[in-house]
Amino acid sequence: MGQYLSANHILILHPQELKEQWPDYLVKQDILLYFDVNKLEFHMNMMISTEDKAFLKEEGYLVIKNFFDYEHDIAPIQEAIYGVIGLVAKRHGISLNREPFHKDTFDNGYNELFAIDRSYASEIYDLVKQIPSFLRLISNQKSDDVYREIRETNISGIGTGSYGIRIDNPSEDKFRSHWHQEFLWQPQSIDGLVFWTPLLAVTQDMGPVIILPKSHKDGLCSYSRTATYAGKAGAYQIGIYKEDEVVSKYGQVAPLSEPGDLLLMDFLTIHGSGINRAIKSRWSIQNRFFNYEDPIGTQIGWKGSITGETQVEKVFPHNFIED
Ligand SMILES: O=C(O)CCC(=O)C(=O)O
User: Does the beta carbon of 166 lie inside 6 Å of ligand 1?
Assistant: First the structure.
């Protein structure tokens, strides 16, 4: 009784058939079934297809559509954000006249508060990172499994200060992320991955993240404290040395995405924020996984985010050039 289930390329065979045709093991497409006919046990390895894994390796990024379950994983975060916005308004004595929660307008009231006082928006920015459903999402089992499968490791980590919710406000360019590779900003393991997932449908005018495909293949760039970013705060003054020259070597992609989709980026892939010229703010979640078993991570000691106390000039002395 052989049977193929086309969706996931799972092949189910009667044990007797297996015994006759595939005495030890069988490999079918993306699924590897280790089968011991005596114990009747098998193990499946199926978080990511071989094609997707190869694409990520070659291009340095990958979009997985509907990776998360919208109702289970994303909607609770949106509903909590809606609630927090209401409570921040209340705290400041502002009455928001808004419709009940709806997934397409979950940030209803945010732009109004932003317009009244920018500091109310900052308050919301800090508070939403404390929402339990958000914290569940960033360390969720599926993400951990897919990371460990891609990097072939048993021990993954989530760096201190390596996760958050971005709110990219229209025409507010000050907080855009300029061109960077994650490994410099999150010096945990060189084979880490950025997990980026939107809380709303990202349209072209919202300035999706811009990625330089294949840039990860050239390793960690040289960096300097450049005049270009002198106006930024602390570590954000660091930029890729001869940035324009480096960036011009690659093509650019800026994938659009919807709630539930997942964008993965290699820790060495150069990327940066697009420019939001829409009416709405662009809300998105970022988190990162790293590999404790990576020899470079082990050597540098899996450091925390550049936004904390880590001094990257000391971690990567050979990658810094005086400008
Ligand atoms: O969302 C963005 O605009 C930039 C995100 C980014 O650079 C990152 O997550 O590392």
Answer: yes
